[in-house]
Amino acid sequence: MKAKTLAVRAGQTRSHFQEHAEALYLTSSFVFESAAQAAARFAGDEEGFVYSRYANPTVAMFESRLAALEGGERCVATASGMAAILAVVMTFCQAGDRIVAGRGLFGATQQLFATILTRFGVTTEWVELSDSDAAATAIRRVRPRLVYCESPTNPLTELIDLALVAEVAHEVGALFVVDNCFCTPILQQPLAFGADLVVHSATKYLDGQGRVLGGAVVGAQVLVDEVVRFLRTAGPSLSPFNAWVLLKGLETLPLRMQAHCAHAQAVAEFLAGHPNVTRVYFPGLPSHPQHALAKRQQRGFGGIVAFEVAGERQAAWQVIDRVRLFSITANLGDAKSTITHPASTTHGRLAPEVRAAMGVREGLIRLSVGLEDPEDLIADLDQALTLR
């Protein structure tokens, strides 16, 4: 079935009441018919629900639907996107293992890899994975346990050649993990390019209205089963209520992503021609260094636009403070357009030299272009930029 159909129909199960909408199962535990059945369920000898930290019917419907959209065999949901990333690393890495990660990762992900995982003996080598030659060379030299990337990256929308990196990662026996938050499975399916696992911050586009936190890991059954075992013990599970909200979000995901792409394209083209903007980062512009790769690898260019203004932090803050429609918040993927200053928010905990190496400069502003009329968004940006 096509994505629009899967987004609405995939994964739904009905109780004996035959409800049309997905049911919300707000329960911590499940009742057994006998002590023997309880023992069989806990031992895994009989299928069925045991405890909502392990699995829950509403959560299972969300997992099934997202797996279908991503083209994966299985999905496991988590309490947040960061919980999904942590679950993958803690499942497959141990002391002495190394990770090759894209230099342009989200700030919290960098903090996890650089400051927390090192306490457990897992080290990370940062590589410009958008440079295919550098990526291949580093992976072959380091021979890591995991290769981890975002494509596009946050906030500069750099792309990684997923098929190439997957091939080299598998050549050295590494697992290739892709954060697909910016594209969602509507615009890109990393598993089809050879990725082993896909992670999501479902908080973003999968919800689409800034309501709840959630995360997910999607991939082959044998790999996701391992992540499930970690989550069952460690506990960062998705709540049934949040899963129900995310299920409702998935129903409109294809339509929303189409609108996000169209609106972001219009905003990016406006910014590219504005005299007070020094640079625009958006894969849909021919000036983007990976524009051709974006056309080949994605089914749309996404809703994230970053741009730079001259004058460093003060100038960027002036623009942000003068917008009227854009919400000043670090979240993204919302129906409402948002604006943020990455150097002082999402990437603010990174050392200045790390931000500089990533290209996150003080004059950089990131937009998540929402579902408002793009003409209104452009007018808002125009007045904010022109009054500088």
UniProtKB/TrEMBL annotation:
Its EC number is 2.5.1.-. One of its GO terms (cellular component) is cytoplasm. This is O-succinylhomoserine sulfhydrylase. It comes from the Bacteria. It catalyses: O-succinyl-L-homoserine + hydrogen sulfide = L-homocysteine + succinate. It comes from Hydrogenophilus thermoluteolus. Keywords: Amino-acid biosynthesis, Methionine biosynthesis, Pyridoxal phosphate, Transferase. Pathway: Amino-acid biosynthesis; L-methionine biosynthesis via de novo pathway; L-homocysteine from O-succinyl-L-homoserine: step 1/1. Belongs to the trans-sulfuration enzymes family. MetZ subfamily. GO terms for molecular function: carbon-sulfur lyase activity; pyridoxal phosphate binding; transferase activity, transferring alkyl or aryl (other than methyl) groups. The modification N6-(pyridoxal phosphate)lysine is found at residue 204. One of its GO terms (biological process) is transsulfuration. It is an enzyme of class 2 (transferase). Catalyzes the formation of L-homocysteine from O-succinyl-L-homoserine (OSHS) and hydrogen sulfide. The gene is metZ. Homotetramer. The keyword S-adenosyl-L-methionine does not apply. PROSITE patterns: CYS_MET_METAB_PP.
